Amino acid sequence: MSEITTPIETLYLKSTLGRLSRAFPVVHRSQRIHVFPRNTLSTSSLSSPLSIDPVSQGGGSRNLWRSYVSDKFSDMDLDLGADSDKMFSEKATLVDTLKKANSILPHVVLASTILALLYPPSFTWFTSRYFVPALGFLMFAVGINSNEKDFLEAFKRPKALLLGYIGQYLIKPILGFIFGLAAVSLFQLPTPIGAGIMLVSCVSGAQLSNYATFLTDPALAPLSIVMTSLSTATAVLITPMLSLLLIGKKLPVDVKGMISSILQVVIAPIAAGLLLNKLFPKVSNAIRPFLPILSVLDTACCVGAPLALNINSVMSPFGATILLLVTMFHLSAFLAGYFLTGSVFRNAPDAKALQRTLSYETGMQSSLLALALATKFFQDPLVGIPPAISTVVMSLMGFTLVMIWSNEKEKNI
Fold first, then answer.
1. What is the pTM (predicted TM-score) of this model?
2. Membrane-spanning residues where (predicted)?
């Protein structure tokens, strides 16, 4: 039996046909809509109409009518979905675009690297005094998207924290010693170059590893932050000892400066983000959509500036060999962190997420700190070349992994 369109339906459809580009009317709570049942001609049905109350005064009733009218027009071979969806999503377009800015991060890092090589003045204005606040802003972005309970949960995984520490201060220094020794003995590079590679392997984890983890596995970002904080806090003692052991000379470290750096780069901005998120949630919600695009620009400067500021050394005759050695060093560290974690946490429910997190933590070092130490405590400028190249290489490799692993997660969902 054919369907019967009620008088109310007919009036509504006619009015809507004349106003395709306008919004659907909102049915208020005081109104009550009576729709006769379809597919029936029984007297009992006509005398007992089905009452439909709006779900809510605003969006609920609108969504109810949108769904109802969409079905009616579908029966008439008319598609209102595209127009109505476009109308209701226009306001969200800008916010969605800003939130998706992180997806272009690897491309931006690559572009900033090329720009720094071709036109160094584009980044030379971003001097070393901006490094601490720039990295601090990235930590603020992580903090405002986190909860204090997440950090308390991180300390409930001492096994993962210990493994991250081993990756930073055992596996990575061993790899640094191997590639630093190869630079001098196999490739006949100057001794300061080998010392620079070893110096990179002796510093703490990079704050960018926290941001990379946040982009791939947000739930484990606090764990990554705690790992980096522990390695950074103990770098005051561990870095000089490893440098003495691997490089063969004492490397003095400014203890007060190191503590100040930890407070500025890690603890203070994350605490500020957490407090803002808890005390002023409306403010947090207002600025949160803009953080991804600002973080992308921030990261581009952190990558391009060290390269531009050390362009003469990077473009030296042995620059390509150093690039190869530094790349192999970081690749080995990423792989070591990933597969070591896989063997230890093979039965964990979040084993893959832990593997990605520990891979970032082992493969990404605070190369900016190594560059600062090389500049301040070593007279030979060649020591600073590997840290400058490392800043670019580990960023490119890390955020390329972010892109690869994020795509894999989306496919598996």
1. 0.66
2. 104-124, 130-148, 169-187, 225-247, 259-277, 289-309, 321-345, 384-405
DSSP structural state of residue 248: S
401: left (phi over 0), alpha (psi -120 to 50) or beta: alpha
CA–CA gap between residue 80 and residue 65 (Å, rounded): 13
What is the spatial distance between Cα 109 and Cα 88, in angstroms, rounded to a whole number?
34
Asked if the model's pLDDT at residue 403 lies above 80, the reply is yes
Both tokens of residue 111? 């572009």
What is the C-alpha to C-alpha distance for residues 362 and 345, in angstroms, rounded to an integer? Answer: 16
Domains and CATH numbers, the chain: 7-93 (no CATH), 105-412 (1.20.1530.20)
DSSP per-residue codes, 186-236:
TS---HHHHHHHHHHHHS-B-HHHHHHHHHH-GGGHHHHHHHHHHHHHTHH
The strand pairing partners of 35, in sequence order, are 50
Q: Mean pLDDT score of the chain, rounded to an integer? A: 75
